[in-house]
Specification:
The chain is 89% helix and 0% strand. α2 runs antiparallel to α3.
Length: 82
């Protein structure tokens, strides 16, 4: 749990101190990037649930691909002449 706390703190420091500065340098807009960081901080569950949905979708695609292609590929290899 200490590792997670340290990562969370590092993310906080980075997001509140680096991202707005990068926004100022790249886009000339510090305030919008500060607002972005603050809004992500206020609504983290929504962002997390969206990411988790995408991860679930990716895992389903990978499982489907593995389930239907690997056995067929192995069957093709075993039927090759030796």
């Amino acid at each position: 749990m200490d590792v997670l706390c340290a990562l969370y703190r590092a993310y906080d420091v980075f997001s509140f101190n680096v991202i707005p500065v990068m926004g100022q340098v790249v886009a000339g807009d510090w305030k919008s990037y500060r607002y972005l960081v603050e809004s992500i901080r206020q609504f983290p569950c929504q962002a997390c649930s969206t990411v988790l949905v995408h991860i679930d979708e990716l895992l389903l695609i990978l499982l489907f691909y593995h389930h239907y292609t690997v056995p067929r590929a192995l069957a093709g290899v075993s039927s090759l002449p030796h």
